[in-house]
Amino acid sequence: MKFVKDQFNLKGKNIIITGAAGFLGQHFASAIAEMGGVPILLDIDRLSLDKTVENLEKEGFSSESYVLNITDKDQIKDVIRTIAHKYTTIDGLINAAAYAMKNMQQTSDDYFATFENYDKDLWQVAIDLNLTGTFLITQAVGRKMKSQGKGVIVNLASDVAIISPDHRIYEPDEKNYYKGVSFNSPISYSVSKAGILAFTRYLATYWAKAGIRVNSLSPAGVYRNHDPKFVEQLAFRIPLGRMAQPEELKGPIIFLCSDASSFMTGANLIIDGGRTIW
How does pLDDT run across 153-191, given as a tens digit for each residue? Predict the structure, then answer.
């Protein structure tokens, strides 16, 4: 029987993280390294990827990194083959890559257009990355996990995969001297993240006998220097009265990647300060 501290230990575990140079991906990589695991970082952004590796090294951790577009099946095949050749096992996969806020803001204001005026191409971009990209990388890694008879997959979903975004938090509110913000949660994001929940449940049953566990993690808004008035609007709708701090997702991701969750599959771990219960 393992002690609790041993259940959370990831020593010797090789864990792939997609979107590893992103805001949450960096924290997941740090968490894996802190618990003795080997974070294998995948991201399309080479500069940000190098910075993430550098930051890990400053903390005294080593990691592997590969530039990868997860919507490119041939690239995925080559990278996963390289990783599988270097490491005896691939013990975990964290699907954190997504077309999220940073990408949205860099694309165009049209990404935040009303539903009636939403562009099909922008819808497709989010579906391609958030769903199809996750499908392709999981398919490739899953083959390796199936051949070795074990593995853990964690798919990053969202609170807005469970409930609708509250559109009022983005709109002006004169009574509270709130001017509103220039962004929202587009339908493509909410729908694609809801698809991740079905994707998780499907693979959990499909791969159960192969020794592969598949779960999802659904965080609410994570604070990242947001406008104070926006934070106030969102926090009002969260029972704990605030947004999450990125460090607060480290424990949950370790739980899902480790033996601490060994009898858990097909589940969606919600870290939202209680938002989805209202």
Answer: 999 999 999 999 999 999 898 887 889 988 888 999 999
C-alpha to C-alpha distance for 212 and 29, rounded to whole angstroms: 21
Q: Quick check: is 170 in a domain? A: no
Token output for 271: 């870290």
Instruction: Evaluate whether residue 33 is within a structural domain.
Output: yes
Q: What is the dihedral of CA 257, 165, 116, 135, to 10 degrees?
A: 10
Domain containing residue 120: CATH number:
3.40.50.720
Distance CA 112, CA 123 (A): 11
Q: How far is the C-alpha of 135 from the C-alpha of 142, rounded, in Å? A: 10
Note the Cα 157 to chain centre separation in Å. 6
- C-alpha neighbours within 13 Å on the C-beta side of residue 127: 9
Q: At which residue do the structure tokens 């890559």 appear?
A: 97
**How many domains is the chain partitioned into structurally?**
1
Structure tokens that stand for 93 in this block: 């996969």
- Please indicate whether residue 170 is annotated as part of the active site: no
Encoding tokens for residue 262?
């060994």
Domain that holds residue 27: 4-164+185-225+247-272
Per-residue pLDDT tens for 38-88?
999 999 999 999 999 999 999 999 999 999 999 999 999 999 999 999 999
Q: Which of 66, 118, 170, 177 is catalytic?
A: 177
